[in-house]
Amino acid sequence: MSGPIEVSTGEADRSLFAFLARRLGAQASSWRNWVRFVIYLALVLNTFYYFYLDGVTYAVLAAEAPLIQHVQTFATTIDYGGWLFLMIAFQLQTYWEYQSRISRKQLFWLVGLISAGAGCLFLALYLFVLDYEYYDHFAGFPSDQVCGLADAETYFLDDWQLYNELTSGNCGALSNTEVYRHGLEPTLISAQNLEEGIELAIIEVINAGVWIVLVALVQFGLLAERMWPQRTQLLRVLGRVKMLFYLVLVVDALYWLTYGLWVDAWDAFLWLFAVMAVQMKTSGPSSPEAAQSTPAHE
Fold first, then answer.
1. Can you tell me the distance from the alpha carbon of 41 to that of 38, in angstroms, rounded to the nearest whole number?
2. What is the pLDDT of residues 219-263, one digit of tens each?
3. What is the pTM (predicted TM-score) of this model?
4. Which end of the chain is more exposed for a tag (fewer CB within 10 A), N or C?
5. Residue 3: CA atoms inside 13 Å, Cβ hemisphere, count?
6. CA of 205: how far to CAs of 54, 80, 161, 254, 263, in Å?
7. CA distance 85 to 122
């Protein structure tokens, strides 16, 4: 006769909720883990939003435009894609930080994600430079002829640098101000919006360049914490240097706020919180229990 059946309470840890809790960072009861989850979810939602905006811009582009211009319209989406690749890579490194060594399979995924992310960020930086050069193609246009282009597949850039179709109902606002017309596409812009667009394009280039430097510092910091945890002076200096770049990014976000670009400012602060959330996870002391629970596999 078989003995009584024993139920192991350890099996409860194999539930889907426990799995998600571990992926969010140890215990589900920690408010930091849920804040991190909300931030990451917001980043995914923002990705779809910016993809929609880039799609609207792409619809305005002429079919015979050069290939680089077609790619250029999705600069923000490419930038976002690169950051999502890197965030996944950073998060994976925090999951594996207590392992004695990283397996070849894990290294393959890390190198692949970091390479894809870095490639997207550098491509996005190049496209942001082209966005700045985009405004060089505007030339003066007679304001009294603006309404003559209404309802004829002509567009204008508004205060948020978004494309709007020029119609007989809204052309009057442009006809009463100094107007410029793009030489390569049927797009108009007011003198004030042209000046602001150039300034915002410069800020975008600076912002993208600073982020590339910062992501390199974050990656180096993750490696330094793993390889040289005893070199506290190096880690302290690295942290101070990163704070300087964080300050530049905060200034960029505040600049967007002053122009009423709430979505861009929200997005900038969201990414700052996301990167800080990843580093917050690795800033605590190493856990021997965690190290035993995450063995390396070849």
1. 5
2. 888 777 777 767 777 778 888 898 899 999 999 899 888 877 888
3. 0.70
4. N
5. 2
6. 17, 15, 16, 16, 18
7. 13
